[in-house]
Structures are given as C-alpha cells and as structure tokens.
Amino acid sequence: MICRRMLGSPEEAEDAANDVFVKLPDSLETYDSSQPLARWLTRAAGNHCIDLLRKRRSEQRIIQPEHHDMPEPLAPVSSPFEDLRSKESSEVVRDAIFALPERYLVPLVMRYFSDLSYKEIARTLGTSKGNVGLLIFRAKQQLRSILAGREAQSRCSARRKRLARVGNPQGPSGWLGRPAAAFGASS
Prior knowledge:
Number of strands: 0
Helix content: 55-70%
Order of helices and strands: HHHHHHH
Oligomer: single chain
Number of helices: 7
Shape: elongated
Radius of gyration: 24 Å
C-alpha cells in the first residue's frame, strides 16, 4: 500500500513491491525483532520507493496519470499565455520540491501527493506525529526559500536580457548612439 501511495501508479507500485520482496532476504539482518515486522516491511518498501522517486527526479515527474486511455478534458477557458505561465510555475515548484533534502522531501510528498495523515506518515517513517509536523514545516520553509531564490535569479536574468537587447550603457557609443561621455562615463 505504501508503494501505491508514494508512486501513484498501480503498475509501478506492484513492480516496487516485488522488488522489495526479492531484496528482502538480503536485508533481513537489519530487522530489529523488538519492532513489529509490518513496520520494518513498510520502512523497507518506503525506502525502495524513495530510491525510485530519486530516479524519477531526472525524468522530472512526480506521479503518472492513472488513466492513460481517458479522453482529453475539454479546452480550458484560460488563454495560452496563462497556460504557459501556469505550466512554468508548476515546473518550478516541482523542481524546487525535488531540490529539498530527502528528510524533508519524503514527508512532504507523502502528505501532499499521497494524501497520508501525519499519523500514517509517522507510523511509516518510524517517528512521532510531532516530528512529522516539524519536518513538513521545515520543508515548506526551505521550499519558500528555494522558490524566492529562483524568483530573484529569474528577475536578474530578465534584467540582463533586457540590458543585452537595449545595449550596454557603458559601451563605446552608449544607448541610442549617444557617446558614453553623455552619461558621465569615462572611456
């Protein structure tokens, strides 16, 4: 069940669960008999799914659509420009999520993409509900920081592009063909 929730696709979840059970005999020495077997199995499956999510990072996707054969939805009322902006924003957010450290990425993905409760996440990760809340809070803080940094980078990049299009005001002929001395620059 954890594979299904973390990976989103029934086929991928089944493959992941099979992989976990194939690798189980090799990792049996990590089992702590004082803990319930189900918790250990869930953690092993969760760790395997995390590895798969890391591999997906290079493909830049989080969850595959469940129904590939469904007809396409009706055209939205928004303009193509709004669609492009929305797509770019979602790609930026997705990239920022994957830039988070694993300890913050996992609970965030489990909460918002798998819709698990804090209690379920705590049970899966073998930690307290309060710690899950703290990890998700810190993940959101780092996500805000990453997104703010990327927004600032984007503004700087846009400014540089505008300056490149207009020309260098300190160049030999300055803007609009005026000599650089007209702007108080010395050659």
